[in-house]
Design goal:
The chain is an alpha/beta fold. Helices cover 36% and strands 24% of the residues. It has helices at 2-15, 42-54, 65-75, 91-102, and strands at residues 20-27, 34-40, 81-85, 106-113, 129-133. It has a three-stranded parallel β-sheet with strand order 3-4-5, covered by helices on one side. A two-stranded antiparallel ribbon has the order 1-2. Strand 3 (81-85), helix 4 and strand 4 form a beta-alpha-beta unit. Helix 1 (2-15) packs antiparallel against helix 2 and helix 3 packs parallel to helix 4 (91-102). The relative contact order is 0.14.
Length: 139
């Protein structure tokens, strides 16, 4: 479900001329490492993203996103907007997002839900959340 949303968001922003990178906690079947595509634009970038997402082994246990990407996320350059796509609001992810927000960094959290079953989230994060219907991918 999140893989389709990541692909759709990447395609949308690349079509707008935006450079897109992709970091995920899914494990690549070839490299056995978390998915990571450096920033780029255009059709070639979208092709790399599609290939990377197709190689995610959904049967393998995902890596802990906060451990795998914390340093990269907190040290990225200004002028970057980050999009989180996650259907989980675990404390460790919320803590990382709070730290990111407290640094003045911009982000949007695309949160997949079934129908309109929105889980409770802390008030400080609510303005940044966009609920996405997991069945059709529409916000």
């Amino acid at each position: 479900m999140c893989l389709r949303i990541c692909a759709a968001l990447s395609a949308y922003f690349i079509a707008q001329g935006t450079r897109v990178s992709l970091d995920g906690n899914g494990v690549d079947v070839i490299s056995n490492a978390p998915v990571r595509i450096e920033a780029g634009a255009g059709n070639g970038q979208m092709d790399q993203i599609y290939r990377a997402l197709a190689r995610v082994d959904t049967a393998k246990e995902r890596v802990d996103f906060t451990k795998a990407f914390r340093e990269k996320l907190l040290n990225e350059s200004d002028g970057t907007i980050t999009f989180f796509v996650s259907a989980n609001a675990y404390d460790d992810l919320l803590n990382l997002i709070r730290e990111y927000q407290d640094m003045g960094k911009e982000y949007v959290w695309f949160y997949p839900v079934l129908k309109h079953e929105k889980p409770p989230l802390p008030q400080w994060v609510e303005p940044h959340v966009r609920w996405v219907n997991a069945r059709d991918g529409k916000a």
